[in-house]
TrEMBL record:
Sample GO molecular function, one term: 3'-5' exonuclease activity
Pfam families in the record: DNA_pol3_alpha, DNA_pol3_finger, PHP
Keyword Transferase: yes
Record-linked InterPro entries: DNA_pol3_alpha_NTPase_dom, DNA_pol3_finger, DnaE2/DnaE/PolC, PHP_dom, Pol/His_phosphatase_N, Pol/histidinol_Pase-like
PANTHER family associated with the record: DNA POLYMERASE III SUBUNIT ALPHA
Keywords, alphabetical: DNA replication, DNA-directed DNA polymerase, Nucleotidyltransferase, Transferase
GO BP: any one term: DNA replication
Designated name of the protein: DNA polymerase III subunit alpha
Organism in which the protein naturally occurs: Treponema porcinum
Lineage, uppermost ranks: Bacteria, Pseudomonadati, Spirochaetota, Spirochaetia, Spirochaetales
Amino acid sequence: MDLYTFDSPEGIPESKYIPLDIMSDYSIGESIARIPELVRKAKSLNMKALALTDRTLSGAIEFYLLCKTNDIKPIIGQKIAFGNNEVNLLCKDLEAYKILCRHSLELQDANDFPMALSELRITKEDCEHFICITSYCTSELVTSFGDNLYKQVDFAEVKNHPEKLDNLDTSHAVITNPVRYLEKEDYEALAAFKLSLSENPSPIYPDNYFADDSEIIPFLTENNHLELAENTQRITEQIQFIFPENYFTTPEAHNRMRESLPDFEDAENQLRAIAVEGFNQKLHEFENEQEARDCLAYELEDIYNHHWEKIFLFHHEVTSWCRQNGIEVGPGRGSAPGSFVSYLLGITNVNPLKHGLIYERFLNSERLCYPDFDIDYDYERLPEVAEHLKEKYGEDCVVRIATYGRLKCWQTLEIAAKYLNYSAEEILPIKKIILDFCLPRVTFSRLLDSSSYLYKDVIPHWDGVKLQGFLRDKKNEKLVKIAQTLEFVKHNIGLYASGYIVTGDSIYTYIPVLKDSKTGWIYSEYTMNILEDVGLYKSDLLGLWELTKLKHLTEAISKKTGTPFNYKEISLEDKETLEAFAKGKTTDVFQFEAPGMKKFLKKLEPDRFSDLVLMNALYRPGPFDYIPIAIDNKAAGNYRNDFPGCESILEETYGLPIYQEQIIQMAQILAGYSLAEGDMLRRAMGKKKLEVLMAKKAEFMERAPVTEIVSEKQAEEIFDIMIPFAGYAFNKSHAVAYTMMAYWEMYMKVHFPKEYRKIIKNFREELEEEDF
């Protein structure tokens, strides 16, 4: 996840008051305070600690890491309903966090149906790991938490009624000002948000802002109860940094990921045996048997060295089960088709040796990474795959992942307008301009910036004038302020469409979870980007309609011919199929159906499978401008060579480095890099960070002359030429796999047109007659 370092204050004394009752926008509908804003505020006030007490732990890791980055002690807590009482439990140590994880489902229920501690199965021994802060110190809480129990004194309440401080036992009492929004003036933004969620919103308190020493300390001093603030410091001192120092580093996270995976008996030997069996079955495919054996040995050794055997075995089991049960599995996607072992295990269906794919693009020993398999399955039968995983590994070991919707600027304008009683006629034209002409994620800062490119290149002049006029009109100032405050606030929680976590032990051992009331699925409270920090393996199971289409086509063709038809055995050199692509007859053909693609196919006149892969990679926003050059170079038959020694690598793309794999190979040829080092160079070029680029350029210029292919001066020129290509270069592994599906479809369209037409009508109402 992205972590930001906020500016340190100068000349501000360390805060005496530590906020211990803060809810963020992860408590959807109750707070609009976002975690980065909370940490920035605490940093600006020179607070050395900060608590987060949402109703779930959803924001705990984001909060913890951001606080640590900014030299603030993070206090992870949770607001829980015990009986008719609400308490804030603050974790004193790692065991406390684990207890909250183990009981996360019961604690979710407790917020809806308050229970006693005993009903939640939280023992007195468990309670020793927490500080408990509550407004009402019941006998059950006193018995359970003892000296760890503190009376909560609401600053807003005693500020107006200081007499309530009389006769208060202040030895175990703390001052708090519950935070539900950041600044005093944000009160109306929360009110507007609550109104958008319910016509009868719960009460909002005008004092639930981020109070600080400037208000609280003078009041307590005046009333002789400064110890109420000192106790916030006392509590902070009792709380540890609950995660070990290096807990969230990539090596440690990967170690935990390996440990959390389902177990496979004798995994190393099992993986080798399956891979060798696959090798022997496919031996006839390999032009150079020794090269294939060397590749197998190299990859297996690398997998063993990094202890990723269980991930490969896991995906082998899933894909094998699917094939045994007639569920279509895609040929691969992303960088996974670059792995020879994946091909031999049947996880992918692309021979990387045949297509010039590179293992290091998938797993690179030069950087810390793990095998990230994203696998496509028949869309109609995807639920069966998920159910199989639950049956195989256990319902508590296969869970979904949370995703949070955030408010976009056009949504917040609507929310603010409703709250302020604007008419539809006033707000709809402005919303329409934003939706019609702006990028989906356009922000208020861009809309309010009159120098923004939006008003020069995106929004038509008069619409831009109208939009800016509305946003800058004094009478709309309050509307814009409320809307801007709500921008990016979380407004709903859902299930990430394709992500599944798979563990060897119950998920409660690792993270807090919730239960989706609609589907019954248990899901991680943490989002996808947090899970890697936590150290859990996320697998993407993607439903793809194209595989459903291929399944129905296969069934129809098999029925017609009377023999089983296997599209994966189709030759990639079928002349009639390639001719159909060259004529642009690609309506309804996966990845090739766009009118612009048809136009370029006719000009390129592809006569080999690699031409189709090239067009698939080129027809994208970045490399799009290279399409005419590739077409001209193919037609000319000879073309300028900017990269001496790389002719064999660039022959299939007509002198242009279009694939990421080509950049890696060029670094190997021109400067003697290993393939892993070449991948690191490609990444540096793609990210375009100046200081990193300059260091890599110097390294490239120093290493290139050693190969005796280019001089140092030529190396500098070549490096500069490679940079834009590296930025646009596409993953060849993905392009090959997805082009393969398109080719299979086109083959069936050409050779079995009646069956194709009939099946396609299920996916599309009307066919273009010209394609037949």
